[in-house]
């Protein structure tokens, strides 16, 4: 088993997720909130990035400072809903490359179906942050990560806005090497595999398709 997931208990994250959950929050605000929460998740998920010491000349003298030690990063949103998190992540990580993996859940079986995958050619050398607002049964996240590993990635973290224990447990069992960062942990799934209380269908709410 991997280490326990990091559930962000920051007041800003809690506040913004409460707004996301509200069924009266419209598409524009929903998309903005997903981006802002992604930025806050990114801050936490990059806490262990290595740094190196450098000397910087200030107007007053020389400061010993730390800068990022040059680890290369890749963001991989799971289409569609993960796309909503990309810009918020790039706010803090402008040099990250972005790959895409397309998965949708078969609505009857809830099994994930992969329909697209395009990753940076040097994915094996990058720390990969896989993005999806929702971790429900865990099928999509597990399969997406399996595909990303098949293409060579060795260092992977998974970031979600809302998760349930079932999805977290499945991901920890199938990919114990993957650290998980989550904005909120909900009770469980309803009979059609939606997170309760959750926030509904994240993709539809981000893109206004329902
Ligand atoms: C949603 C969500 C996840 C998946 C989570 O995507 O964005 O990818 O469901 O469910 P799981 O943990 O049970 O696999 P969906 O299949 O609705 O596709 P979409 O993003 O294109 O709307
Ligand atoms: N996918 C979503 O978008 N929402 C859920 O609650 C579960 C899966």
Low-confidence stretches: none
- What's the Cα radius of gyration? 18 Å
Strand content: 25-35%
Please, how many helices? 6
What percentage of residues falls in helices of 4 or more residues?
Answer: 25-40%
Number of strands: 13
**First-to-last CA distance:** 38 Å
Give the overall average pLDDT.
96
Pattern of helices and strands: EHHEEEHEEEEEHEHEEEH
Given helix and strand content, the structural type is alpha/beta
Q: Write out the distinct hetero groups bound to the structure.
A: 1-O-pyrophosphono-5-O-phosphono-alpha-D-ribofuranose, uracil
Shape: globular
Largest sheet: 9 strands, mixed
Report on this structure.
The model has no long low-confidence stretch (mean pLDDT 96). Strand 6 and strand 7 form a beta hairpin. Helices cover 31% and strands 32% of the residues. The N and C termini lie far apart (38 Å). With 210 residues, it is an alpha/beta fold. The protein has six helices and 13 strands. Strands 1, 4, 5, 6, 7, 8, 9, 10 and 11 form a nine-stranded mixed beta sheet that branches. The chain has a two-stranded antiparallel sheet with strand order 2-3. Helix 1 runs antiparallel to helix 2. The site of uracil has 9 residues, from helix 6. 1-O-pyrophosphono-5-O-phosphono-alpha-D-ribofuranose binds next to strand 4, strand 6, strand 9, helix 4 and helix 6.
Task: Please outline the helices and strands.
Layout: E1 6-7, H1 11-21, H2 27-45, E2 51-58, E3 61-68, E4 73-79, H3 86-92, E5 97-98, E6 100-105, E7 112-118, E8 127-131, E9 134-135, H4 139-150, E10 155-163, H5 165-174, E11 179-185, E12 188-189, E13 195-196, H6 202-207
Parallel strand pairs: 1-11, 4-5, 4-6, 4-8, 8-10, 9-10, 10-11
Antiparallel strand pairs: 2-3, 6-7, 12-13
Helix pairs in contact: 1-2, 2-3
């Amino acid at each position: 088993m991997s280490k326990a997931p990091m559930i962000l208990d920051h007041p800003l994250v809690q506040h913004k997720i409460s707004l996301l959950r509200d069924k009266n929050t419209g598409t524009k605000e929903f998309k903005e909130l997903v981006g802002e929460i992604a930025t806050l998740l990114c801050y936490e998920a990059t806490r262990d990035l290595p740094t190196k010491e450098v000397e910087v000349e200030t107007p007053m003298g020389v400061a010993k400072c730390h800068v990022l030690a040059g680890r290369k990063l890749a963001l991989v949103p799971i289409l569609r809903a993960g796309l909503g998190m990309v810009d918020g992540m790039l706010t803090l990580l402008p040099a990250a490359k972005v790959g895409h993996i397309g998965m949708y859940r078969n609505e009857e079986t809830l099994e994930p179906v992969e329909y697209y995958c395009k990753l940076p050619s040097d994915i094996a050398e990058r720390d990969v942050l896989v993005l999806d607002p929702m971790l429900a049964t865990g099928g999509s996240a597990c399969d997406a990560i399996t595909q990303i590993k098949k293409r060579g990635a060795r260092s992977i973290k998974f970031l979600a806005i809302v998760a349930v224990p079932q999805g977290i447990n499945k991901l920890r069992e199938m990919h114990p090497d993957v650290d998980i960062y989550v904005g909120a942990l909900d009770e469980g799934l309803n009979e059609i595999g939606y997170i309760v209380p959750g926030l509904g269908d994240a993709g539809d709410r981000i893109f206004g398709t329902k």
